[in-house]
């Protein structure tokens, strides 16, 4: 599920994660929403993979293994995208100029 919020000149795209959609997948889905790219084509169209910037499995474990996900907050910068993970939601905003 995604929606965009008003945030200065760069919109923020939100995706939720759950047991079926790990946080690492939600991050890529949100970046793809920012760039209007199909997630299947993401590595080629975006020019990077999440694994080049963070260990997706470790990130998923950090979030999944915490019994109270409301206490987990992770901020990361991935290839020009500012990501914030909290409360079963991923917010992604481009911090570079749009193509």
From TrEMBL:
For this protein, the record's Pfam families field holds:
HalOD1
The chain positions of domain Halobacterial output read 19-83
Highest taxon in the source lineage: Archaea
Q: What InterPro entries does this protein's entry cite?
A: HalOD1
Q: What is this protein called?
A: Halobacterial output domain-containing protein
Q: Which organism is it from?
A: Natrinema halophilum
């Amino acid at each position: 599920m995604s929606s965009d919020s008003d945030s200065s000149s760069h919109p923020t795209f939100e995706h939720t994660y759950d047991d079926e959609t790990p946080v690492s997948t939600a991050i890529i889905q949100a970046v793809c929403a920012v760039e209007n790219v199909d997630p299947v084509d993401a590595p080629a169209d975006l020019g990077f993979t999440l694994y080049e910037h963070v260990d997706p499995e470790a990130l998923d474990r950090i979030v999944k293994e915490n019994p109270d996900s409301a206490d987990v907050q992770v901020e990361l910068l991935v290839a020009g995208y500012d990501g914030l993970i909290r409360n079963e939601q991923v917010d992604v905003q481009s911090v570079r100029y749009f193509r």
